[in-house]
Design a protein that fits this description.
This protein is an alpha+beta fold. It folds into two domains: 4-102, TATA-Binding Protein; 106-208, no CATH class. It has helices at residues 22-34, 83-102, 166-186, 196-208, and strands spanning 4-6, 13-17, 40-45, 49-56, 59-66, 70-75, 105-107, 123-130, 134-140, 147-153, 157-163.
Length: 212
C-alpha cells in the first residue's frame, strides 16, 4: 500500500493504513513521540476510534484510528485549518508512512552480504531482514534478468521476482515491505479469535505476494 492523500473534505487527510489493528496505531504514535519529538496534548478514546492531538511545527494535528477505516492524520481544526496545517499533514504523513513501513527492517547480517554472489547468480546489492522473520534480497545482473528479487516469510513462503531496471526494483521492494508487514500485523490478532474471514484475508495476502 502507498500513502493516500485525501483533499475532498475541505482539508487534507493522509491515510497511512486503511486496514489495521490498534497495535499499529500505538506503534505509529510511538514513532511520533520518539522520532519526531511530538507530544500528545489530548487523547480521546472510545470503543472503536482514537483521536490523539499533538503539535507539529506550528500546526495542530490529529492522529486518528478507527477499526473500520484504519489510521489517518489530519488537521485538528478540520475545514478551518490553514494552508500551512494542510501542508504539514502531507509532509509529516509521507515521512511517518515510510518510518512505520521500515521500522522492523534491518540490513541482513549488518550488510556483510552486500557484494556477494546470490542464489540467482547476481551480485547482492540490497539485503534486508524483518525482525519478525522475513527477508528481501535484490541481486544485480542475475542469470535471468537485470534485477532478481528473492523474498520470503520464514516457514510460510519463498518467491523470486524479476525486474528490468533499478527504479522498478526499488518500487517493488517498497511494495513487498508494506505487504509483508501486513501479514505480520495479522498475527497480532489472538489465535483463539481468528475467524474464517481472518484466514481468508491471510491467504489472500500470501497469494498476492506470489503473483508475478
Amino acid at each position: 500500500m502507498e500513502i493516500k492523500i485525501e483533499k475532498t473534505k475541505g482539508y487534507t487527510e493522509a491515510i497511512l493504513d486503511d486496514d489495521c489493528g490498534f497495535e499499529k496505531f500505538y506503534r505509529t504514535a510511538g514513532l511520533l513521540e520518539s522520532v519526531f519529538q511530538c507530544v500528545f496534548t489530548q487523547k480521546l478514546d472510545d470503543q472503536d476510534s482514537l483521536y490523539w492531538d499533538f503539535e507539529y511545527k506550528e500546526s495542530r494535528l490529529t492522529l486518528h484510528y478507527n477499526i473500520y477505516m484504519g489510521i489517518s492524520l489530519f488537521p485538528t481544526r478540520f475545514k478551518e485549518a490553514s494552508s500551512s496545517d494542510n501542508k504539514d499533514v502531507e509532509e509529516l504523513g509521507a515521512q511517518l508512512f515510510i518510518r512505520v513501513r521500515d521500522q522492523d527492517w534491518y540490513n541482513f547480517e549488518e550488510g556483510k552480504t552486500i557484494g556477494e554472489k546470490g542464489s540467482e547468480e547476481g551480485e547482492i546489492v540490497f539485503d534486508l531482514e524483518n525482525v519478525h522473520g522475513a527477508r528481501i534480497t535484490v541481486e544485480h545482473n542475475s542469470a535471468t534478468a537485470p534485477f532478481a528479487i528473492t523474498y520470503g516469510i520464514y516457514g510460510l513462503l519463498f518467491h523470486v521476482h524479476y525486474k528490468s531496471d533499478p527504479e522498478k526494483a526499488g518500487e517493488y521492494v517498497a511494495w513487498l515491505k508494506a505487504r509483508i508487514n501486513k501479514v505480520f500485523d495479522m498475527y497480532e490478532f489472538p489465535e483463539n479469535h481468528r475467524t474464517e474471514e481472518w484466514y481468508h484475508r491471510h491467504d489472500r495476502l500470501v497469494h498476492e505476494l506470489t503473483i508475478d
